[in-house]
Amino acid sequence: EVEKNPHALIIVDVFTEWCGPTTMLHRTLKNLFFELGEEHSLKICEANSDRIAPLKIEKEKMGCKPLWLFYKDGAEVGRVEGADVPKIEKIIRENAPKKIGM
């Protein structure tokens, strides 16, 4: 996705299907991403940590917490562990380019 969207802010939602808090937060943030995506160039990707070995190891260290990774121009520009919605919104607003005409 980074190569297909080189200038967008790429948001990777690392989740597990078995974690209730992560699933609930996931729904809330989808609404936030939709709202912010109206004026910012965003690409949201989902990564089930149970199916991706390196992510599974990282999630096992963290326990049942949401993990959000943010990439811009191929580099990680942010990471949020846990349900810190204000921090997620701040990273998006500081790093996601505005859409043309906004």
- By secondary-structure content and strand pairing, the structural class works out as alpha+beta
Helical amount: 25-40%
Low-confidence stretches: none
SSE string? EHEHEEH
Number of strand elements: 4
Radius of gyration, CA atoms, in whole angstroms: 13 Å
**Shape call:** globular
End-to-end Cα distance: 24 Å
Oligomeric state of shown chains? single chain
Beta-strand percent range: 25-35%
Number of helices in the DSSP assignment: 3
Query: Main sheet: which strands, in order across?
Result: 2-1-3-4
Largest sheet: 4 strands, mixed
Mean pLDDT: 78
Quick overview:
The protein has 102 residues and is an alpha+beta fold.
